[in-house]
Fold each of these.
Amino acid sequence: MSSANNFKLGLLINPVAGLGGSVALKGSDGTDIQALARSLGAEPMAQKRCERALSVFADREVDIVTYPGEMGENVAKALGFRVQVVGEIIPGKTCAADTERAVIALIAQDIDLLLFAGGDGTARDIARVAPDSLLVLGIPAGVKIHSAVYAITPKAAGEVVAMLLDGKMLSLKMQEVRDIDESAFRAGRVIAKYYGELQVPVEHRYVQNVKSSGREVETLVIADIAADVVELMEEDVVYLLGSGTTVKAVMDELSLENTLLGVDVVKNNQLLASDCTAEQLLSLTANTKTILIISIIGGQGHFIGRGNQQLSAELLARIAKEDIWLLATKTKLNELEGRPLICDASSEQINRKYSGLITVKTGYHDQVLYPVAVG
């Protein structure tokens, strides 16, 4: 690896990563899904999330080698970095093949680290062509993040790069790349597969684990949590119920159909809308008291920003911290081994709003206080 004063950073952005999240499409793989997402009003978020990561070390002397336009050049130049651009793209029509070509081109420039913004599909594309010797770190920008090659937030990715620039010693570890079948995901089934490994600089405060498979679900405890939630529900309050089996138990207790991997809306114990988009949620919660009921991702600790991008910054600005009913068994919290929960919203203001201690419902009339990191 180069010395700190001539560190060469490879930068790669998948411009369509996360495109389907805000419009409830459960992913962004495939041109048909991307076109549908755009027709529903989705806006790309990957460049903004990359900008958040790069801003952490924007005051450093760093040479960035990247691909043209929306695949890295625009963000790097906007922040004032010295930028070398390689390769060619057709703007607005990038695909997995562009990602693979970019990785090969960047490796040829003798980069010290490949920093990329994307989701599990992007990690798969990189793993397909990257040698084991390539040092890689992901900026989470996709709808689904099961792979262990990502920092926990965009800012955390920037912090890891800053540590490398400062010459700090970080462990290098081969981390798993995993992805799910999006068609099965949209049908309510999670089928994750192993697609290889990439070498990642690991700092345990900043780099996430593989998503927990949920094999140790405590059925009785989850049922108790659900009973407690339903007992606390009030008339004329709008409840937004997020994804996952813990929240599904609440819907089961109400005898209502559940999307499992989307956001449903309930009022007066009746289902108002299923699998809502960001715009639908804004409309259904306008000028009314709203409670958000969500759970954490086992093994990682995220509760905002993973699989629920329908919860826009505009919507979250309306919801007070005390109006988030966060559900988790104590077993799931213990899996975090003391690491804080993570809010990775599209807005730093929202991340700060929900940081500090938050109440987690862990059983029937049982709750704990647990820390949330600043995003």
Amino acid sequence: MFVLGFESSCDETSAAVLEINRDGREQIIRSNVIASQIDIHSLYGGVVPEIASRAHVEAISSVTRRALEEAGVKPSDIGLVAVTAYPGLIGALLVGVNFAKSLAFANRIPLVGVDHLKAHIAAAYIGAPEIQPPFLGLIVSGGHTVLFRAEDYYSFEQIGSTRDDAIGESFDKVARVMGMPYPGGAKLDLLATKGDPHAFAFPSPALAGDTLDFSFSGIKTAALNALHHARQTGQAVRYEDLAASYVHTAVEAIRSKAEKALKQTGAGQLVVAGGVAANSHLRASLSGMCKKLGVELFMPALSLCGDNAAMVASAGYYAFRAGESAGTELNASASDGDW
């Protein structure tokens, strides 16, 4: 079965063809074309929604054509169209949703709307048939930090999340104030490898008590205050040390809550996805923790951690298999789905 996926929730326009065989156990990426808008938004230090929407309109036709050509298939070969419908920037989502609806309707192909968060987790399914629900899932990205229990490949129960900022947003904001261009999370990760992780004492984003929730606003404010105070008083700040301390504290918070969740749920597998899943410090920390607990750890390939349509196609397959479908009434929503 060939699934054509579309992703346009933020600043990447992507179309992909995923070949799925053996009841979903074998997933082969035939194409995964991504048109990034980073160069555009870096001028403004972050994503400008209206500009993002217009860029999606300009790119989606050519991206789709390339995805079909690279996969060596025609629309008549496609068995399912899957598109990110929520959450995300509403204008950006509408571009992908309306294009996917039109293509599916014109070619009489079944259509399904996909939850962007569940799509991130589905990125780990590609190339990892060993993943078997129930498992513990962790999404770490620019907009979300969520712990959940997966009852099936597309049926999740949230058990913990951030109450304010997401880990990825906090990384990007601190990196920006340190003078790094957007998006700064990857650059902060690299800089952190050169510093002392104990040079600065930052508050932990892991909330105390019997909860699996996080709060990243405090650590972000503490880091920004440290930078502003140093500049106002003429003190020198070794950015490598601040980056290392910030990343270490944030990663340790994620590790501690993930470990607590694993022990509470008794899960034998941890699936981690989202843009921040590419962070080298987080990957190393979670790998060590899972090895200690005897838990299997699954993460997408680095190329699949960011937004892409292959993950949408994978999630769409499982949503469709679970009985979900959509027609021309499908609409986009900026809000998270109801798990």
Amino acid sequence: MKKLSQLVNSIVLWLLLLFGTLSLFPALPALAQITDAPHPAKLAAEPQVTVANPPDPALPDADPETLFPHFHNTRFWLSGQANFIFQTHPPFHAPYTGPNSLSPKYEKATSRLLTLYTGVRLDNSTEVIIDIEEAGGTALSTGLGLAGNTDLDIVRNPLLSKAPYLGRGIIHKVFGLSKDRVENQRSFLSLFDELPRRRLELRFGKFSLADFFDVNSIGSDTHFQFNNWTIDNNGAWDYAADTRGYTVGITADFEDRNWGFRFAEALMPRVANGIDLVWRPWQVHSENFEYELRHGVIPKKSGAIRLLAYTNYANMGIYREAIANFEAGLTPVPEITNHPWRITRKYGFGINLEQNLSRYLTAFGRFGWNNGKTESFAYTEVDQTFSGGLGARGTWWHRKQDRAGIAFVSNAICKDHQTYLADGGLGFLLGDGHLNYGRENIVESYYTVHVWRGIYLAPGVQHITNPGYNRDRGPVLVPTFRAHLEF
């Protein structure tokens, strides 16, 4: 598996070099002045055009201070980050524990995620992004026992190599469809200073779908914001990814003044939560669609509404079939992986709302649903979710680099999924051996304090009711402490 992963990364790097070389040739004259697009979350927070009665915008977050200065007004990007998350939980009530349970005994764990961000703008319409990561440390109960896991940075497979790996390798091409421009804030995903107001963007390579879909400015970043999987992302969106959260594919993104529409075609893993992708996109593949309207639901207050849909085709089991095999005595417990290779479909929908309440306070909410009869395969074991929260900017109390937030999420699974776990079946994350079903409800809060230059510390806490959807276990209190370095 290690050699295969290295081969995959090598192939992606060679493709990037090939496409990058081709991109050095002169672009069409009509494209000579094209520039790149900002991260979708930025678009919701910043007004892009001047209107007669503009809405009251949210005060944008101050750029994080860094330990070392960045390149400015150049075609290069070089930065880095280090994120360390310490978590623990005291003993909690649990009359029984299964192979995939959160341990009821006292635990502590520290994860780390180190990233080197690099990029180069090849011309006025093309850029190459290459990020190298190293992830390690440990997770509470090796990441098992919770649908809404408490740490999005964890390595879910402790057997993976701890060596650095290719996180992102992206060729980004932008086609301008209007002459007027808007300002763009440079970031590790976008190196341009300005871009056409109306444009089509194409991205190809290795990336995380969560880089470009289901993003909001309050609940999408483990470096400065929340840590829980189902608060930072839509838990019912079983987005195509390997164990580390990355896939290989292509995205197309059309952006206009107040709206955008994006599409992605991506590879799926070979097995649930596996590190190896299936390189047969005509059989195993994922489609993702998102429409974004940059308009608040409160008059004269900025905001955004994002509608998400996806469909996955992969070697996924059907919970009802696994239960039927168990009841017929063919397996000692339901086994969702006990089937020949075959392609089944999983699909779902999501809503992502972001609303500015004042210059310093922003609210967000998500709702997600999928056809839970098909095996949870790539992200987490959630068939329905809704969440909401608030994020506050430190400028409110005269500390512009600080942030604070509180959020709530409620996760659920369908009846077939419930019966599968109750009969002793195991998912890739859950399996207490039995189940007294209840919705998994989680509350998380944090405060990120800027210490000095690029050093940030963030105490926080999560309270989990019915961990793993089990009323017989918990509740669980998980204190958290994060140390973040921005280079």
